[in-house]
Specification:
This protein is mainly alpha-helical. About 75% of the residues lie in helices and about 0% in strands. The longest helix has about 35 residues. The protein is flat, with a radius of gyration of 19 Å. The relative contact order is 0.14.
Length: about 170
């Protein structure tokens, strides 16, 4: 029998939990994106353009659902690294700053990005001995994340159903 994976086993409170949260945050907000959570805004624009090119107005009617999905993804990203947990907020703000520096200045931002990377590593290291959440707060956070993931599922399932209907 396969071992069951869980957040508790893979991302226990401490450095591993913060690393998991930041990895998910980066995938949603940074990886190949600028200000487009999970690329849903780009997809909404694509649907509007495809609607015109293909003369299928129903495609443009689906675009707002994908914009709503972008909002749901943005809400999840803030839930992953919330403002009310100081080291998580600081990590998010610094990671955003580093990403935007690279996107806007490239190699000209190397010095500041190296300083940011050092601070991000210091925050991760501090989690080994000074994790800011107790066990009930960790459980609450995990439940909030799960609730946001389920909300995204619902928004995107409805959007995909509408898209299938528009293409029928």
């Amino acid at each position: 029998p396969r071992a069951r994976m869980s957040w508790e086993k893979v991302f226990p409170p401490g450095r591993k939990m913060l690393a998991g949260l930041t990895s998910a945050y980066d995938d949603i907000m940074h990886f190949g994106k600028r200000t487009d959570p999970a690329d849903r805004l780009k997809f909404a624009t694509f649907l509007e353009e495809a609607s015109t090119i293909l003369d299928r107005p129903a495609l443009a009617e689906v675009a707002p659902q994908f914009r709503a999905a972008a909002g749901a993804w943005r809400a999840l990203s803030i839930t992953l690294l919330p403002d009310d947990v100081q080291p998580f907020r600081e990590y998010r703000q610094l990671a955003d700053r580093s990403y935007h520096l690279f996107a806007e200045l490239g190699a000209d931002a190397t010095e500041e990005r190296v300083q940011i990377a050092a601070r991000l590593e210091a925050i991760l290291s501090a989690m080994e001995s000074d994790f800011p959440l107790d066990a009930p707060a960790v459980q609450t956070m995990r439940q909030n994340i799960a609730d946001h993931v389920l909300a995204i599922r619902d928004v995107e399932a409805a959007a995909v159903t509408s898209l299938k209907e528009a293409m029928a």
